[in-house]
């Protein structure tokens, strides 16, 4: 029996069987489908789609935003930091520091501007312009993961007890229960 070698949880291909296709990706120029609740689309290229990224500690994402409010909602990456470069449009982007300060660092970004999102901090982007926006994100992990805050809090498969959320967020129980019944989507 031949043993399988896993690196970072991914099957490590025998280098003699690697091809250029393991190290390239085509289609990053194609606009994503933004006809969803958030009016945005994230095309994340990780080691799952491009095996040559495994062990390199990088991944890339293209984010497309509809005009006037297309949103990549507050989220964080448990295994990576991120830099985001605006290619087209105008984005309001920022992040919030952790306990105890919870400082907001945010700015309006235009084409050619970029912002760094430190490891594990909640961050977001929203198109505040009247035209579509496009950004490219580079992440410091071949598998950065993503945890969208609202989805995790209100859209989990097993709802968090409403009493926990009413106390934590100072919300009425009916509001929490209503939020838990809504369809929470990811922008991908």
TrEMBL record:
This is Germin-like protein. SMART domains: Cupin_1 (SM00835). Transmembrane segments: none annotated. May play a role in plant defense. Probably has no oxalate oxidase activity even if the active site is conserved. The lineage of its organism: Eukaryota, Viridiplantae, Streptophyta, Embryophyta, Tracheophyta. Keywords: Apoplast, Disulfide bond, Glycoprotein, Manganese, Metal-binding, Secreted. GO terms for cellular component: apoplast. It comes from Dovyalis caffra. SUPFAM superfamilies: RmlC-like cupins. GO terms for molecular function: manganese ion binding. Gene3D superfamilies: Jelly Rolls (2.60.120.10).
């Amino acid at each position: 029996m031949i043993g399988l070698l896993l690196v970072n949880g991914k099957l490590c291909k025998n280098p003699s069987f690697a091809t250029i296709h393991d190290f390239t990706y085509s289609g990053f120029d194609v606009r994503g489908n933004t006809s969803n609740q958030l009016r945005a689309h994230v095309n994340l290229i990780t080691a799952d789609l491009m095996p040559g990224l495994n062990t390199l500690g990088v991944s890339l994402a293209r984010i497309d935003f509809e005009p006037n409010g297309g949103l990549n909602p507050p989220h964080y990456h448990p295994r990576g930091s991120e830099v985001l470069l605006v290619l087209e449009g105008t984005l309001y982007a920022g992040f919030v520091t952790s306990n105890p300060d919870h400082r907001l660092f945010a700015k309006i970004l235009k084409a050619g501007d970029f912002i760094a999102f430190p490891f594990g901090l909640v961050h977001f982007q929203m198109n505040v312009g009247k035209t579509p926006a496009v950004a490219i994100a580079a992440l410091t992990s071949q598998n950065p993961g993503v945890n969208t805050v609202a989805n995790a809090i209100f859209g989990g498969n097993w709802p968090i007890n409403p009493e926990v959320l009413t106390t934590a967020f100072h919300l009425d129980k009916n509001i929490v229960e209503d939020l838990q019944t809504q369809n929470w989507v990811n922008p991908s």
